[in-house]
Specification:
By secondary structure, this protein is of the alpha+beta class. Helices cover 29% and strands 16% of the residues. The protein has helices at 5-12, 57-60, 104-122, 161-167, 173-188, and strands at residues 66-69, 73-77, 86-92, 127-133, 144-150. It has a five-stranded antiparallel beta sheet with strand order 1-2-3-5-4, covered by helices on one side. The longest helix is centred in the middle third of the chain and has 19 residues, at 104-122. The radius of gyration is 19 Å and the shape is globular. It binds zinc ion. Residues 50, 53, 56, 58-59, 95, 141 line the site of zinc ion.
Length: 189
């Protein structure tokens, strides 16, 4: 029997830990920290944006803002410069909520697409790693993150890169656009 959220809450609420983040080279902040009080479970999962494709931004988007598209997939960036050199999102054209919802043919193509987008992002240069991630707790329309961190700055390695993106100042607009143009060029090559 899996632990219910209520059981987890009762077990954990007075037993929260603070890992020694201040000793971690990759932790972006200084100063003493305390964990937030754990809030009790809600009666149901909160709805995600665009549930069931209703009011879904990805479904409604005609495609102008995408860096690259084909019959099944689309690749897009955000509207403004990021702190990290490149962040792009890969989405299926059609609305699927979870990786396990993809038809087998599309799921098989996804492997090829992930490798292709990763190569395209890496081709920008001065990239230490391209993190490939899927969270999916915000918008329901399936999307994979490709998060490029700069090379040779050990503090920026690992999963905190996603937080460092908001800590680092945004890239100069021109460099950001050039980076995205290189990704788009590599996808089309
Ligand atoms: Zn959608």
């Amino acid at each position: 029997m899996p632990e219910t959220p209520e059981q987890l809450y009762e077990r954990a609420r007075d037993a929260l830990r603070t890992p020694p983040v201040e000793e971690w080279e990759t932790w972006p902040f200084e100063g003493e920290l305390h964990p937030r009080a754990l809030e009790p479970p809600e009666p149901q999962e909160r709805p995600r944006r665009g549930e069931g494709g209703i009011g879904c931004k990805a479904c409604e988007d005609p495609g102008d803002r995408y860096l690259w598209t084909d019959d099944h997939w689309r690749l897009r960036a955000f509207d403004r410069p990021t702190g990290l050199p490149v962040i792009v999102l890969l989405e299926p054209r059609d609305h699927y909520a979870e990786p396990g919802d993809l038809p087998d043919e599309l799921a098989a193509g996804l492997g090829v697409m992930i490798a292709r987008v990763e190569r395209a992002v890496r081709s920008v240069g001065e990239i230490g790693r391209v993190h490939v991630c899927r969270w999916g707790d915000g918008g329901e329309h399936l999307h994979w993150w490709f998060i490029a961190r700069p090379a040779r700055i050990p503090q920026l390695i690992g999963s905190f890169a996603a937080i460092w993106d908001d800590v680092l100042p945004p890239l100069p607009e021109e460099i950001w656009r050039e980076n995205l143009a290189r990704v788009a060029g590599a996808m089309s090559a």
